[in-house]
Each structure stands twice: as C-alpha cells, then as structure tokens.
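Hi support team,

I submitted a single chain yesterday and got back a structure, but I'm not sure I'm reading the token output correctly. Could someone confirm the output below corresponds to the sequence I sent? I've pasted both exactly as they appear in my results page.

Thanks,
R.
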Amino acid sequence: MSDRSEVLKAINKLFEKREPWQIISMTASSVLVAVWAHSLYNAKETPTTRLRKQFFRWLRYIPFVQRKIDEKMDEIKRDFKRDVAKRLDGVPIRREIPEVGFTPEAVAEEILDLINLGSYDWRGGNVSGAVYHLDQDIVDVACAAYAATAYTNPLHADVFPGVNKMEAEIVRMAVNLFHGDDECCGTVTTGGTESIMMACKAFRDLAYDRGISNPQMILPTTAHTAFDKAAQYLGISVVTVPVSSDTLTVNVDDVRRAICRRTCMIVGSAPNFPYGTMDDISALSDLAVEYGIPLHVDACLGGFLAAFMPAAGYPVPPFDFRLPGVCSMSADTHKYGFAPKGTSVVLYRKPEYRHCQYTVTTDWPGGVYGSPTVNGSRAGGLIAACWATMMYVGRERYVRMAREVLQTTKYIERELRSIDGIYIFGKPATSVIAFGSNKFDIFKLADHLHKKGWSLNTLQFPSGVHICVTHTHTRDGVAARFVSEVRDATRACLAEGSEPVQGKMAIYGVAQSIPDRSLVSDITKHFIDSLYYLPTPEDKVEKDIEK
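Hi R., thanks for writing in. Yes, this is the structure output for that exact sequence:
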C-alpha cells in the first residue's frame, strides 16, 4: 500500500466516528492555527517584542498609570519649549511674510545672527562631526558653484544636461575610488539616509522579483539607524545581530545563523557610527557569495576617508567592490568628501540593482514618469557644488587631508588610552573614537566637557561618548586642548565618585533604563516638535516669573 493510502486511511479513521459539526470545527481550527503560525513566521517583529509592546500598551489603560504618564509628558513638553524660548531670547520671531521685503544687507545680517545662536564654537573645533572642514578656499569654490546653479533641476535633463553630466561624473569618480568596474553604477542622493533607503528599496524590490513577498534584512546592532528608518518606510523586516563585546564588530557566525529564505540583504559597516569600528566585510562578502544574498556596505561616515587611507600611509582591510559579495555601497560626499550638505552616493555592482532603485509610473495622465531617487525635483546646485569640490580638491589634497585627520585621530586615541578611569571601545578604524568608564557615569564626564564647550555624541547600550575627528580638529592646539580637558574632566569625575550626573546629561542615562521604549519614542517626538516651535509672548512672561 502506498504512503498516500496510509495517510488517507489514518485521516478517515480520525474522523469516522465524529459528527459533521465536529469535523467542520476541527477543520476550521486547523486552518486558523495554520494561518496564525504563518503570520507569526512572517511577522515584522519577534513574538517577544510584540508581547512586550502589548504589555505596556495594556498598562497604559490603567487610569492612574496614564495620568502619571500624561503629567510627566506635559512637564517634558514645557521644558522643551522653555529651552527654545531661552535660545531665542531677544531674537525677532517671524510669523508673516514681511509686507515690504528686506534689503539684501538686512537679510545677510539676520542670517549671520541666526547662525551664531548656538552654544558651541563649531568654527573652533569644539563639535564632534557635523562640520568636516573649514578651508575657506574650498568653501568659496563650492558656494560659487552652488550660486551659479541654484535654480537648476536635473529632473529636466533636456534643459539642464550639464547638471546630469556632473552627477554622472560624481558617480563614476566614486565608483573608481571604491574599485568598481565599468558595470558599476549609482546615483547622487541628498545624504546618507537617502542612500541607505535607496539600497534597501532596490534589494526589497529585487526580493519581490524573486518571489519573496515579505523580505527581511540582517543588520548588526551597530548599523546606522537609517536602516531602521528604511524598514519603517518600505515595510521590510529587520533581524539584528549582536556585535562582539571585545571588538565591537558584528559576529559573522550569528549572521550566518540569521540567514533564511526571506533574507533580501546583509549589511556591514565600514565603519559604524557608534564606535567607529569596521565589520569584517571580507567575511560578510564570503557569506553573501555562498548564499547568493546582496551585501550592502555602509561607508557613509568614513568611506571618503578610508578610500584614501592606504595612500596616506594607514592600511585598511578591503571593504569595497574588490570583494565579490559587495553588491552596493553608500558613502557621503558631504562628510570627508568635503562637499556642502547634503550629498551622498549610493553605488551598485550592476545596473540591474540600480533599476530596482528607480520609481517608474507608466499610466499617469501627466505622462510616463521616472525618478532615480526619492525626490522628483532635485537641487542641481548641490550636485554642482559637490562636483566642484571634488574637482577642486583633487586626489593629492584628499590624501593629504586624510593623513592630517588620521594623524590627529591616532594622537587623540593614544592620549585617551593613557588616561586612568576611561577606556576605548574596540579598535577605531577611521576617525571615530568612542570611550566609556567602569569607574564613574560616563555621562558625568560628558557633562563636564559640555560645560567646557564641547559637543560630543552620547551612546547607549552600553553608555559611552564618542568624538568624530574632522579636519577642523587638525588645527593647531584643538586636539591637545580636547585631550587636556578630557583628562581634567576625568580627574574630577574620579574625585566625585559615584555621585550621579545632574541636569540634561542625566536624561541619557535614564532613557536607556526605561523598559517601555514607546515612552522614549514619545519623548523624542516631543523634542522634534520643539524644533518647530516659535516662542510666544506667554513664554516671555513665564521666563520673567522664573527670574
């Protein structure tokens, strides 16, 4: 008797003494269980994550809990608005278009006043990242290029073919810089986030073409949050893989275990933002080739530095198209490419991938519409300014500036390692140095440095601080001043012992200890709201009362 007959016999025996309603109920229940199991397998979040979120959602239904949360949120919103009011104290607030336009001189004067409102001396090198150079000759060339092309739009290729040529040349120069071949291609975007989103969109659509209806991507926990943003926008599931506690690089064996039929892409960082360490891109490339899955290398932060490191005398492991598994890369021209904000490039090994990035509409009454990136109209001025910067700086100067940044980074790293009370996370690969402490709250040190005028990046899980060294830090005395003030601040923290940090820096420690992450999300949304807030006369009254 065949296996099929045995199965049918077993099924018939199971149902032979049952009522019709029982058979219907059992069949329906089996279908429902199968549907539930399928949805569980294909869900964008793990069961643990969903249960945790549901628990805290139910908790908010308790009136007492919700009332306490509302009271605290109202207090936080008031604090955010109060901070804005203090920053803009004495500054004219514009709510209407002026009846009579300002003179050019008045416009320029007010812009300068607004630029100087911040608390940090970014021109003096007191800021981590953000401003990547202050060489006036480069600024002048880029601004002149932007001024000449400010109203151009590469969407209209027949009107502005020269802008399209400049974009194509930026892409080709970047492809060659990262050792791509003639088939490699890409586009210019408005920044690293858009470059990352475009790569995710391309490989999501490629997965759709291959019959995967619910794709997921594998990320190290240190991958830039832009990948999570892309997942939210594009409906991609995310599987996060831990990094080694020693090297702060992704565990390749865990990546292998995470691969499944739904995997549409693997991500590696070169380097990552939090710690500045570089994942083992070569090992990830081998995995990508073995399983036939695209590997995206996020080199947004340090790509245009790492590319020149060998010529500058600082070896770096291969991380680009020399590795066969690397199918795409993202790198920011507005960081160590020294172009104005905001431009970046997303690059692909072959045109098939770039085609998946495009958005094409064929049945619109306005005509056939195709767009390479998120935007329709794009700023031709930014493309021209980026092109002008790359042409003006040239390879020799890029190498020289990279050497200066790396020399400064190595000096700061060496000096920080000699300070008792703090330690360096992993091995910095390019220009980011992250440090923490086992002897005191590291946010206390950040607070001391903040009071001395330094703006650093704070980290969580675990707590830490990092400085992203830019060309502004290579100016005479800046790096030595930073090291000296870190040493003084560390000495003060050791003397204070376990005394908790006070003020705004305490928020960073509290935020990572809140189990309900939706509360942290709500606080962040209120903070973003405050960036659009314009103080009212009532704020002035409240401030006077405080005084």
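A quick pointer for reading it: The mean pLDDT is 89. Let us know if anything else looks off.

Best,
Support desk
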